[in-house]
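Minutes, methods subgroup
Present: GH (chair), OT, SY

1. OT presented the first of two proteins processed in the latest run. Sequence and structure tokens recorded below as shown on screen.
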Amino acid sequence: MSTSPRRHRGTAILFCCLYMPLMAAWAEPSLTGQSGLISMPDARIEPDGELRVGYAWDDPYRTFWGSVTLLPSLEVSGRYTRISHVQGFANNSKYGDYKDKAFDAKWMAFEETDWLPQVAIGTQDFLGTQLFGANYIAFSKRVSAFDLTLGYGTDRLSGVFGGARFKPDWLGGAALLVERNTIDYAADPFAAESGAAERKGGWAYGLEYRDRLWGAQLSTTDGQWQANLFLSLPLMAPEFVPKINEPAPYKPTGPQVPVDVWLADASYQRELVDALLKQGFRNVRLALDGTTLRASISNGRITRVGRAVGRAARTIVLGGPKGLERIEITYLAADMPLLSYQFQDIRGLELYFAGKLPLRTLRNSVAVYNSDPDYFAFVVREDLLDFDDKPDPAIEGEITEESKVLALRTENTPGSSLTWSPVQLDTFFNDPSGALRYDVYTRVSASRQLGDGLYASGSARASIYENISGVTQPSNSLLPHVRSDVAEYKSGQRVRVDRLLLNQFYKPAKEWYARGSAGYYEEMFAGAGGQLLYWPEERNWAFDIAVDALRQRDPYSAFGFRDYNTLTGIASLHYRLPELGVTATLRAGRFLAKDDGVRFELSRRFDSGVEIGIWYTMTNGDDITSPGSPSNPYYDKGFFVTIPMSSLLTRDTRSTAGMALSPWSRDVGQMVVSPSDLYRLVEFNRPNSMKIDPMTGFGR
């Protein structure tokens, strides 16, 4: 076909108005979700931590996609594409059209300067079936109001491509686009069936609009209309919703009394303890040594340790005895002493809480260090009070770790809690009997502290509506079915106890943490085991080992078992880059299907608290079932997202919501769900291990 008129029109758009006023060019998503023009990539990436999710329509392709700037120079994205008119499985119309999962990545190799362009190297669909695989290099340079791109691609992006984005001030958030599309649609998989073979590529034109939190693009290529709509979220923002429903800081109810009067009258002591309990603090212990008051506390609601300790310090300074010269507060997690704060300038604390002293000045008189369990044991032997009475349970709306909707939680003084999650959702993709399988259910969870570091916990779920029982194709895995029979567990019983555990936590030494567990770990396995964590003080690395003797549960019996036992042992080395919030973890050992190997994890926690990560596992399990083969066994891989609900709610909470997505449900390289992972527990409560100062949010 003749492309001369289009070529001339594209050339005119590329070079007209070169000297219009310049507006900072944003990186925008292409139809694949990866930053680019329309169908072609460019060298741009979004600001660090920018998350985007969207939907693209480009017949015969319908694509749900997501992308994130995982590191300052690295963008990763994933997409789930439906190919119209192509049957997913032969002789099975229930599944519908063919669906494909793909993962893309782009690395900014060189940042733009006054004279040189920005350079990026990228890859598309580099995992799994790789139906739409491609590699490329792209160069982008801003000239006045234009952002010009030239690149070269291989495979699906075959040859030289290029284009421009025109974004002057007077267009506001709008922009005009032109590109040279080099995709050979006829070479796409199933091109004849889907109709892609009729497409020719060539010049494409588009109009887009971008607001801070959303954007849209409408375009046309070889007479074919395309559309892209997306939402954008800055993960580097500390929070997305202001905490307008947060309880007010403590205010004294009466005048302070001297230390000797306070010590002689138990009512003053009781008043201070009650003030701490009413603010949500638990495991409160107090000890007075002359003019030094020592306290231990825990808090299951406030996200940041510095904020929780600051609120406790405010309460003690304003509601405790007058004449204190030093305050020491030890923060507990699972009844293990983690961090100790030592305040040596009480007058400075008073001025800070009155708004008359900046935090940078106060912190010069504050010492924060890893708690010594021996010293802590000495302190608690000197307790002033032994209180067993319990205030009325407080009920608050909260999101539990697994929940996706509002839950109700009641908690009493020793740390017992009851949580109801009215609606939760499990989803499964790409089963041959249907592209989307789901289970909508309700869950009740309870926990109780039985003694020092000893906790009992459990949860039960009841299915409300599900279509997983419609799965007709059994697992064809040649390994023990440790995960691939998931449909049986989701549909076997409408009401099921999925967790019933005893956990004993212990801190044997200053840099050591231990846990022992027994019971029903999760819906598929029960057993007994333990974990030992070593985390040197002021170091960015940690090491742990977890060993569990497990037996597989029967999906059709509340507490029965299948005839499968295994002993798993996983050693893990963690290394953090606190300045970036990045954690790299290498695990090695024996996995659930008795396969031996290694698992690599890389994750990043952004300033908002959102964590995004990926994993890749290689074992000797040799999973040759599709998409694996004898010459190329399948290795477990995927990505996960954890969202702190405090960033989305008007009240602080430690609850999180999360999801993990793997291309296939397989048995190779699988791990049991930890009863309570010590590394995660300590990391979450150890500000120095993250990109968070131990005084962040102090007392707010």
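2. SY then presented the second protein from the same run.
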Amino acid sequence: MSPFLISGGDPLRMGVNQTPKGHNFALFSDQASLLDLLIFDQTGALLSRFSLDPLRHRTGSIWHIEISGLPEVFNYSYQVKGVSGPLQSFDPDQELLDPYAKGISGFEYWGKRTGLPMRGMWAKRDFDWEGDRPLGRPLKDSVIYELHVRGFTQAAEVENPGTFRGVIERIPYLKDLGVTAVELMPIHEFDEFDCPFLDPVTKTRHKNYWGYSSINFFSIKSAYASDKSPMGDVAEFKAMVKALHNAGIEVILDVVFNHTAEGGEQGRVINFKGLSANSYYMLDANGHYANYSGCGNTFNCNHPVVKRMILDSLQYFVAELHVDGFRFDLASIMSRNEKGEVLAEPPVLESIAKDPLLSNTKIIAEAWDAAGLYQVGSFPASGRWAEWNGRFRDTVRCFAKGDKGLTAELATRLAGSEDLYKHSQRNPYHSINFITSHDGFTLMDLVSYQNRHNLANGEEGRDGEQHNLSFNFGVEGPSEAPRILQLRHRQIRNFATLLFISQGTPMFPMGDEIGKTQGGNNNPWCQDNATSWLDWSLAEKNAELLAFYKALIRFRKAHPHLHKRNFFTGRTNLSSHLPDISWHAQRAWEPEFDHGNNKLALLIDGYQGPIKKDQLIYAALNFEPEPKHFEIPQSSSGWLKVLDTYNPAPFIAGEIKPAAEPHNLRLEPQSIQVFVRD
């Protein structure tokens, strides 16, 4: 007699869910004619096979069953039978993974396998949140730090390197730095062995280090947990979120809904392909996979089933794991329909923006895809979506390296990119300002290399962005020449200063604050080694740079008019008799937007209506090759010099001194000065 009791089950809750009677299973497959559920113990031994009767266990395209008597911990998979055709093939012997599985067996250890097949995992784990909730910090007050869980701590002196617990051990560093949110590169389960390329020197196979190749969207990368017990990864992830929240730091996840780990026609079958390929993917009439992602397949995000799954995933991570926000990789793919056509009002994007459970959740789009669709400033926003502002990145890089004709555009970017966001009822903080990210050069490499150096990736140097907008100051790569080093470090300080005095939400990747280098590799997605890992010895070697970043973040937080809620108007305030922002060049009130120069100055008023909210802030930028003299507007006494990127020591030390000659400021080449006045 079977120890298990079965009933029809509930089609409304997908995946595995505990019920008063046992466990309910629900799975979508619209073309399956028969479906088997296989239950295994932790050793991989088959406990039972349940063949689902379509008359009893199928409602529409949802297969469902409730089972009583299952053990507290078990693994499971499905086998599906059906009629194969151009758009769908079935292999009745292939075990398929539940797209809603919240745990996956076999991936517990980085770089090695346990021998267990890839199967869904169930284990109930209690967790005491002790009242923790998502923090809900306004986006305008955020400072985002992009972080790779393994790379952040793999080379650190922590007890649990490369794990969520390792991140917990480094929270004091994050808190001292001053960031308000960490943006974690992908933590959905992925296969690090999913990389075909070899190291050209050692001939060993690279690993998928970055993880932009999700197996499903509910399970967590189990190798990132030091707790190897069943569902220990979920418990440890929760502990990390809770600890970060206790430190006042939010958690944003980088999610990859544009493609999956299954690849194209020749790719492997894990779950989605075997259940309903033409629902989950964009296919043509012959079953060929569209490739708007550049990774072999394209997720069909606006299909009703896929849209529901994406919403379910986001809701799960917010409600159950207390995540504060999401950054959507190649999010423009989510604006395409099943034919790849761009939709004006994509259902999935609108649903995310208007979902009541996600109404306080940060949603950030990488507003382009790998097929040329570029939607920065035109992403279907519903008034909610923030965007990685690639226009900010490119303008700042070009202006800083001396390109001409960009003064007006730089002013627009510094003021929050009103031209991109106001028309869609968005605000300055919807512009996620960045100069570097995981994708491309580090900031140190941006000032040290003209060209990418990606041979180590195993693709003969063909991979990675060619259009880097970088400048090496005359030497490609490392240099010991004092003059070159001084120029490079000053330029890093310039970039950081522009980032933190700009309206919008600043973001920077781990290590920029201590001079992290990747040796000119601008696409180290497969470099699970010192190329990518954060070298913590740089914190001591480049202590001045780290102190400069800390001081900049403190300065930004202390001045609310550097992160305003609304765009500047240019109108004169009746109390201060100044516009809320004004533009200048060497002479006050005479900006030179059309003179082919690289000089600019700005003055931000401290008043908001009749109330004084902040000090006056004046910043002068000289990216010319020779010194220039600037005149501060209203250059009477009272101006205090806060920052000079040519001489950062006083700023780092907190020394604020009166401006010697506010009507005749000398700015050294490629430098920025910032002043305040009550």
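Chair's summary of item 2: The domain at 140-255+389-561 is CATH 3.20.20.80 (TIM Barrel).
Next meeting: continue with the remaining queue.
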